Here is the input.
Amino acid sequence: MKILILGAPGSGKGTYSRGLSEILKLPLISTGNILRSMRNDPKVGNIIKEYQDKGLPVPDDVVMPLVQERLSRSDCKKGAIIDGDVVYNINQAKMMEKIIDLDLVLNLILPDSILIKKNLGRRNCEKCGITFNVADINEHGIRMPALPPKKEGICDKCGGPLSIRTDDTEEVIRERLKVYWKRIKPVLKFYREKGLVRDVKVNSTPDIMIPRILDIVKKELGVKNV
Here is the structure.
């Protein structure tokens, strides 16, 4: 069972990917996690640091072999939940097709106005990468209470420090969303033509949305006993 989860920044892609990973007992594959784990690697670590420290995406010919290696491990034998950051553009989608056969693509949908507020409310753990959110959303029929850490500034999971991305300003977020929609359009077209995409309108909290998403997975892939 190989499921790819796509979503704009602030859509909850990471949260829903982790949720499905835990429920379905499948490994979560994320470019962010892979690159963090490889920053000190003697072969590719310096290349990763060079691009990331400049705020640039790491080249596909560096990222995708690392993704392929991760998916080849024994814990992925029964499948994986793949965070959409693995398929950053159409080139990566085509490269991914040569690595594994996806069973389902979940596309998370939220209005840009909500995405902007969610992005402004993000608090990221500098150590493990988990994200919290202090934005309280209640508009357009969408109710998303804040999901702050138990202790301000401290990650619940690992105790690492939380920070706000320096580029998480409204102007930069709006531009980031424009870039996302431009690059994701051909990716979605690519997967829709294969009949893999199911759109998911996100309008509530993860405790409500995850069961809804799980129902889609059960229906589309015939999953039972979860």
